[in-house]
Every structure is written in structure tokens, then in C-alpha cells.
Amino acid sequence: MVLLGATGSIGENTLRVIAAQRDRLELVGIAAHGRHERLAEIAQQFGVRHVGLFDPAAHAAAAASGRFPAGTKFYRGPEGLRELATLPAADTVLVAVVGTAGLQPTLDAIAARKTIALASKEILVLAGKFVMAAARASGSRLLPVDSEHNAAFQCLEGRAPASVRRLMLTASGGAFRDWPLAELARVKPADALQHPNWAMGPKITVDSATMANKGLELIEAQWLFGLMPAQCDAVLHSQSIVHCVAEFTDGSMLAQLCPPSMTFPIQHALLYPERAPKGTDPALPLDKALSLNFSPVETARYPMLGLARQAMAAGGAAPAIYNAANEIAVADFLKSKITFLEIPRVVEHTLSSMNPADPTDLAEVLVLDAEARRVASTRVA
Asked: What is the pLDDT of residues 276-333, one digit of tens each?
């Protein structure tokens, strides 16, 4: 397999899975944005000789470092990611690249009929229509790695979308789930990065606090499972043990449970349809007391979820606009340029300022993404 995004939180958990399943999984290619020192450690540990770096300076430093295995071939920039995604030795490509950089490599891997283990939310939010059409045309299998979508895949496998009344993705509620609403005005970036259950990167941790991540996941679920907006829902579940609940038209429900560790969905996706006899992390101890709580999402606390629903209802380019504006707003919040409560205001402004007409091709998608980022940046300024 090839791992795009090897040094991020998904990448590091993937490496744990591969290390525990060396008789089933072989890592042949890795890529990161710029952390060449960590890539060198990974390459040495797993004997990887195909290494990509998005940043040109990091690529040059890596090639000159002498820290990689003998015979290592280096790949640079966007084109390097595309080459790695179609590496002949790979059967599976796990895409854990943040932002739009993973879109074209994913489409290339699909065209090459690789199995795609997809961890990047933005790819389907930006271009779900094109990605899913390409997968159908090539016969490439697309397996979700995100914990909620992987859980939904396990609950819905073999079932018709028409049999689903609601697909409920669970949400922890993030760092400010229990804060008084009046206190949210004083939130600092350091506060937002304290997730109660998961260890994740800064951007997705802030998205958890605003619940923008759940909005993106609902949009993504539409494409993955062929659902309508009304069939996609979210519910608060503070323990992060139940990752999805599928309610069917007859009123029965199926849920998927596992501890809040990304190794579970990653291992499922990489070994599918097999299941390893032993996982990387211990299973739930059901011989001990276990409480599971669920509650509805407070719309006043999480306006980003409401904005995501508006984008889903509008369709067309609206989800891509939502995603781009949120990325700008979160980046500026982490730099203390805007307040926490201004994040949804930036997104709402961008959505209301742009035409959400459906893009006709990928080039138009990328132009629209750039324009949404410009509009959001103007609102920030």
C-alpha cells in the first residue's frame, strides 16, 4: 500500500496498524508535506523506497540527507503525489492529505483501479460527484477510513439506501460541549485544541469544537452511501464509543461500537473484507460497567452544523464553498486573527455571497474553491 499523509495523526495510526499486521500489509510508498526527518524514520522502519514530499525545500533536504534507505526514489510536489498514487507495486492507496492536494492523486488512483482508503473529508465534499462517478466507471473500490463513515459502512453494507430512514453520525461535542454559551466569546485557540476523547490535528480538533467536522461528514455520507440530505443526521454521544447508528424504515437500528481509537476503522478498511484475529488496540471491556449517553445537538451552540445542512439542501457548489470558507476561518482563528464565534460568521458570509451553481468539471471546482477562499479572507480582513 501507499500512504499519502504519513506524518499526520491518521498516518501515524496507520503505521501502528501496518506494524501489527506485517504479514498482511506491506508499505511501499509514503508521502508528507514537509516532515522529511519523520519520513526518514518511517522509511527505515518499514523498508520504504518510494518517498514523496510536497514542499520543494523539504524534498531537496530529504534527498541530500542520506538518512533514507539505499536506492530510495524521491517524488516532489503535486506531481509526485500523483505518481505515488499510481505506483504499480501498490494495491491500496490510503489518502490522508489535508485540503485539495489529495483530490487529483485520488482520481489518478481510481483511474489506475487501486482500492482507495479515504481519510480526507475534503475530497468528497469538494468533488463527490466526480469522484464517485470515476469510481463507478473504473470499478475501483472506495473504503471510508473516518471513524463515523467506516462505522456507517459496516452498518449499511448490502442494504439499499431506500431502506434507511436515518443515518445518525455521533459527535463528541468537542472541547466546549459543557461550557456555558456566554463563555464561548472568550475561547482561545489553546482551549479549542483540548479534545475530550480524541488525539487529532489542530484543524480537525477546532472543527470538532464548532461541529463543522460533523457537517462535512454528513455531506460526505451523502456521496458515500447514496443518501438524501434528510436521511443524514447527527447526535451527541459524549463517550465516542458508538460511532454510527443506522435507523431503518421498519424502526430497527444497527450501531457500530469500538473504543475511540482510529486504529479500528483504519484496520477494517485496509484488511477489508477480512478481519484480523487480533486488533492493534484492546476491544471494549463489556464485562465491566459501561454507560452510553445520547442527546440532540444544540443549534445555538453549534451553528456550523446548521450551515452545513443549508449547504446540503442548496446542493451544487454550496458544500465546497462551506468547506473552503471554514478552512480559512479556522486557520485565522488558530492565528488569533478572528474569535471562535466569528468562524460561523465567516462561513455564513461566504455562502451568502457566492453562487452555488453546480460545477461542470473539476477545473471549475478548483476555481470555485479558490474564489470561496478569497471571499472568506475578505470577510476575515
From this structure: 887 788 889 888 888 999 999 999 999 999 999 999 999 999 999 999 999 999 999 9
The set of residues, in sequence order, having a beta carbon less than 8 Å from that of 338 and lying 6+ positions away, is 329, 332, 346, 380
% of the chain exceeding 90 in pLDDT: 85
Q: Nearest Cα to 174, choosing from 151, 203, 145?
A: 203
Written as one letter, the residue type at 289 is A
How far apart are alpha carbons 13 and 6 in whole angstroms? 9
Q: Which amino acid is at 252?
A: S
Q: How far apart are CA 314 and CA 332, in angstroms?
A: 26
pLDDT band at 203 (very low <50, low <70, confident <90, very high): confident
What's phi and psi for 169, nearest 5 deg?
-90, 135
Number of other CB atoms surrounding residue 180 within 10 Å: 7
Q: Please check whether residue 294 is in contact with residue 237, taking contact to mean a CB–CB distance below 8 angstroms.
A: yes
Give burial (CB, 10 Å; 0-12/13-18/19+) of 156.
buried
Going by C-beta distance under 8 Å and a sequence separation of 6 or more, which residues neighbour residue 83? Answer: 52, 75
Separation between Cα atoms, residue 280 and residue 229, nearest integer Å: 35
The alpha carbon of residue 56 and the mean position of all alpha carbons in its chain are separated, in whole angstroms, by 25
- Residue 126's DSSP bridge partners are none
Compute the residue count for the chain: 381
Residue pLDDT, tens place only, 209-226: 999 999 999 999 999 999
pLDDT at 192 over 90: no
Q: Calculate what percentage of the chain has a pLDDT beyond 70.
A: 98
